[in-house]
Write a structure and sequence with these properties.
By secondary structure, the protein is α/β, with parallel strands linked by helices. It contains three helices and eight strands, in the order H-E-E-E-E-H-E-E-E-E-H. It has helices spanning 5-16, 82-97, 160-183, and strands spanning 23-25, 44-52, 60-64, 70-78, 102-104, 113-125, 129-140, 143-154. Strands 1, 2, 3, 4, 5, 6, 7 and 8 form an eight-stranded mixed beta sheet that branches. The protein is elongated. This is Membrane integrity-associated transporter subunit PqiC.
Amino acid sequence: MKKWIPVVLALLLSACSSTPSKTYYQLPALGTPVQVTGTPASRQLWLEHVSVADFLAQSGVVYQTNDVQFVIGQNNLWASPLDQQLQQTLVTNLGSALPGWVVSSQPMSSEQDVLNVTISGFHGRYDGKAIIRGEWVLSHQGRLIKRPFNLELKQGEDGYDALVRTLAQGWLQQAQEIAAQAARL
């Protein structure tokens, strides 16, 4: 009888524990996809590359717990690599913000503008803000325009769902800023 006690205790303990479920997140493209027929007069923008800092290139959604510590989610994960999601949504958001332009993640011609974006912050923070930080470089007819960006957006609610929605809203806002700069050239 005594040799069964450890087995029964182990079974009871394992019945009380549960494995947390994993949740996967995809950034929504908040801009409206547009169909543009390329004409010789239409401007072209190639989004060549979006790169993210190493700590953001993990599969987990990142949360900053204090001024120097970050946690990479183990159960709150990106559905696909973050750099890919950022590039895909940026193409959609720029296309929506630049009517008449052809915006693509593929090269189109030698006359195109070329955009590269580096992300150093795309995470939640302990004070309830979503952080989007980095810089972009736009090449237009041999001229380079480089702009840093640093957005801190207040989340409307707690939780990862609200964080991802707020990050998507900030990413749309940044796309609109890039579009405004590109349109002025």
